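Take our chain:
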Amino acid sequence: MAKKGRGSNFYVHGLRSGWTEFRYGNGDKQQKRPPKRLFNHNKRKQIVSQLIEVLDDFRQTRFEHEATCRHGLRSALCLEGHSWAAADNEAALLVSEALKSIGAIRPRWEEGQRYYADGTSNCNWCHGPIEAGSGRFCSRECARSMLESMAGRDKRDRDVAWRAAWMLINRTNKPKVTCEACGSMFHPHYASAGRFCSSACYDAVNTIKPRTCTVCGDSFKPKYSNGVCCSRVCAAVAAQRARKARKERLAVETRVCDECGTDFTPQSQNSRYCGDQCSARARSRAYRNRKKALSDSTIVCLPVPDPRPLTPAIFDGMLEAA
């Protein structure tokens, strides 16, 4: 027998009419499946290797031939009979894999703004010449003018120039300190970072010797003692190589499952079980053991200490209660 009233399946929320759900939906968004790839793994690997040769031959930036490669792949796939959407998705994925392989890091939004590209050779407000290492503004007045002009903008529009202006005003409010290298007086950026007035003074005192980059082979002077790469691009390439080497090492490694004792190939360095079932059984057994240990009557449970201070009145009351 069908239920009525609040138990009826016709009404989503009890006695409501259901108009809101009918008009706007119930809020449960269906997860769309990712589109099916048009090539298998070997074919994709072959295409990516060819794209790497084209993308790596650049003059200005690694993204110089991105649009051309994506357009060419999309056109070829459309001529083979694939839909435009499927061809464009496959071309975008292949080009992104190739860019990732050559260590291309896409610029952030703020790096495309004109204040970011202006650099630090001229003031970002009055465009007058400034000394190297002085920041982006020649004076406190120019920095304040920049802040006032950006006061009504959204946080997204407050790019590197806004932060540089705010840091200059904040720095000038701090007392001057003496540079440990040249002895000149300067305003520190932070209260705990007032040792050197510029990067040149820091490099003069820095005792770290130049070393060779593990990726490109160029000589550079690292900022920290554990630095092995000369730039972020080389660091990204080194991290990708390390992940690939770790996967290759785990692919030939064989471990014994702690639960069932069968041999399996680990997916990560901390893998202890061959599958989800063994992992769930181990967690369930550990939970039961902890619960059993807490219910053991032989374990003495100490009382929770009273956070109140022990006063003479409380001590007399404890003696009377005893």
